[in-house]
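Translate sequence into structure tokens.
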Amino acid sequence: MKITDVRAYTLDAFRTNWTFIKVETDEGIYGWGEASLGTRENALEGCVEDMKRMVVGRDPGEIEKMWFEVYRDSYWKGGPVMMSALSGIEIACWDIMGKKLNKPVAALLGGKMRDKVKMYANAWFVGAREPEDFAAAAKKTVAMGVKALKWDPFGKAHMTLSLEEMDKAVRIVGAVRDAVGPYVDLLIECHGRFNPFTSVEMSRQLAPFKPMLIEEPTVPDNLDSLAWVRDHSMIPVAAGERFYGKYQFWDVLHKGCVDIAQPDIFHTGGIYESKKIAAMCEANHIPVSFHNPSGPISNAAILQLAASTPNFLIHEIMLTDGSFRKDITNEEVFFEDGYILINDKPGLGIEVNEEEIAKHPYKPRNLRHYTGTLTDIRPKDDTVYYFKGLEYANEKR
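Result follows.
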């Protein structure tokens, strides 16, 4: 079997863009990967096109050799664009091999450690601005059976928090805790926005609400700052979505930067590189939670990886997404009592509707992390709870 073509598809996903990678072979078997960056999409597609000449003609089953040689022969190594392009191709090759062997990818990675993973909801807070808004949304979400919630309560703050901004963040987290009770996990997203002393003070003020973690408290371009915060924080520190590959994660681990690692499988080099990073973390007794605020291929790939990773902790999923999500792929996600079940379909267990992709052309989207618009209210006819489909799926089972 030989790779005959590699193509990138970027589509508008309302709050961001998704980039899917299709790898085709001379046996008619093809695979899907994801490389969504949410920014620099044109550069990403160009990188995939450049990388294609290094991939076409290769055996898609020689994943380790292909990855090593493409990375070795890329003079400018690392960074989000190059690593995402390589990751998307690598993920698609795993999908091909699973289909060829009629096995789920988890079986090719050593077999399942588990049949289901605990999940936490992101994007459950659409439209919330004030503490009472977050509390109402949290109560509604938990009533659906969700047992862990992640969100960013910090508005437009960057580097520092004024007394007023800190007070509002504390009131928002407190309102959510009061709404959901003591046994729902709260995960506090910081989006890499604070300096070290602000991060530590924020952890001190939020600690009474017993969050599971604070995510990316400091700007990700300084590991020493993150390590200092981890040493002084009153809440466990998680990070990793903007660390590119096992070489950078080696520094993260040796500097003692995190309590929980969050590699993003389509920025770290793909499924196998993420498996290696997880093993490095396992040797340091650090759990992993793969970053997943993206599309359905990402979700499918991470679930296969999570199934075969001993130190996997918790899975991220977007609670609301565009109503088109169910049309883009044949994604089925079974949800039970705070856990997502992992399927046993060949490959990643997902197929893409290429005609539907064409209906959602790329639109430039600016990041909203520091503008206070993370909780944008989407158009009324496009507001859907992703888990409505899960209830239907459970009925079918």
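Note: The chain is about 40% helix and 15% strand.
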